[in-house]
Protein: ATP-dependent 6-phosphofructokinase
Amino acid sequence: MSKIKNIGVLTSGGDAPGMNAAIRAVVRASIYYDLQVTGILRGYEGLISGDFIEMDRKSVANIIQRGGTILKTARSDEFRTKEGRQKAYEQLKARNVDALIVIGGDGTFTGANLFTQEFDFPVVGLPGTIDNDLEGTDFTIGYDTAINTVINAVDKIRDTAESHDRLFIVEVMGRDSGLIALRSGIGVGAEAIMIPEANMGVDGLVTRLENGRKDKASKIIIVAEGDEVGGAFNVGEVLKEKFPAYDIRVSVLGHIQRGGKPSCMDRVLASRLGVAAVEGLLNGQSGEMVGLKNQEFVFTPFDHAIKHIDAKEISSVWLRLVEILSL
Ligand code: F6P
Structure:
């Protein structure tokens, strides 16, 4: 029999569509197992300051379809310190919270990993980030919605690019990871994709364009914001110099990629993982993220989940695909 009677839940780091569906699943699964649920506002910031709310089945009604997070989120500097984590632990003890579910990405799990080890406090994580850059799950909550947002936006850009015979450089999110760029780039039929994991460089891009078909009306280059070249505007400057005949425009998609209604894939993933996280805690799991790999639930230790996914292997295969498909 588990000693857990009260589960705290929080969202932390960059918000991601589907976080609300995950919160709903955690709350409803906890109630199903006769547990109390405590919502913690603004991630680790609220954990430290004791910004806690009681949650019941109604507090998560009508949120499965909403983007953002009803619990709000933050990136907490104080939780990076031992003193901050000590305060957080005291707040949990004072409110009789005996376990935590944290929904976020690598920053969230780095903090959770320290916390669970220092205080021997049960914590399970849910992968909530648009970047899809965690080990231990095929997809993170929010990624599917984000890449669909990207392709919907770039399809519109394609209309104007085609009408004006233009080359567009489109910057997508992913400071440390090119996985949004890779998948959405293939989805929009991009001419080239530039990501931090592959060193194409502007020279490589120039060669690609020189060797590419000249009679194409429109060209789309997708650049991940973390690319070593330094973003879409820099790439645009170089290309304008090298190809004065091209009519070049730059478009940075920015935070629209983090908002909006979650896709059905994200809602279902979040719902399944939310229930699995509660059941995992009750079965004694801790210090791990629950993910879905090949349709199986997998618990991965935090320090392994945050090993930044190496997209190098994926990228070489996929970037070849881009080359073949853009002929
Ligand atoms: O981790 C999610 C993410 O959207 C990254 O893709 C991006 O680099 C970063 O967060 C942006 O963070 P912020 O909203 O704090 O500028």
